[in-house]
Design brief:
Elements (H helix, E strand, L loop, with lengths): L5 E4 L2 E4 L7 H11 L8 H9 L2 E7 L2 E10 L4 E9 L8 H11 L8 E4 L5 H5 L26 H4 L3
Parallel strand pairs: 5-6
Antiparallel strand pairs: 1-2, 2-3, 3-4, 4-5
Length: 158
């Protein structure tokens, strides 16, 4: 578990090597181009990747996209922070990233794999994700002011 893996598709590379993460760029794009991570500090972004299985897409060592999976590698995983830079969208990279994640050897056989999205349901459905099957079993504990001015109540509303 946790050994670095790499996959090549033409000029693009997906790697799980933390040393290939450009945390400065990832922080900048998460806080300026997403609806879910606008209030994260650089330290929170760095810590979130340190404590996750990272997937970074590179083109000539330039960060093109990424995702991370929080998991115990046995029963549960949560997919988070999936992102493809605007100039690289429409090339099939999000699908390739998802194919790579769901096929990753360390993530096979998990009982539950979750994610949250406001607008990419159809992408994730292609990879077996669906609405909660038994929603009345699920609860959450949310710190509404975890990032100070972060507005969780409205973040995922369309």
């Amino acid at each position: 578990m946790n050994k670095n893996n790499e996959w090549q598709l033409g000029e693009f590379l997906i790697s799980t090597d933390r040393n290939k993460l450009d945390i400065g760029l990832i922080h900048h794009l998460l806080t300026t181009e997403t609806y879910w991570a606008r209030e994260r500090t650089p330290e929170i972004v760095a810590r979130s990747f340190e404590n996750s299985l990272p997937f970074v897409i590179l083109k000539d060592d330039e960060t093109v996209g990424w995702a991370r999976v929080v998991t115990d590698y046995a029963t549960f995983a949560w997919l988070a922070d999936v992102f493809i830079r605007r100039e690289f969208r429409g090339l099939g990279l999000s699908k390739w990233l998802m194919e790579t994640i769901v096929a990753h050897e360390d993530l096979k056989g998990l009982r539950r794999f979750l994610l949250a999205t406001r607008d990419a349901h159809e992408l994730y459905r292609q990879f077996g994700f669906d609405d909660l099957r038994i929603p009345h079993l699920w609860m959450e504990r949310t710190a509404l002011n975890a990032y100070a001015s972060f507005d969780l109540e409205n973040t995922f509303k369309e």
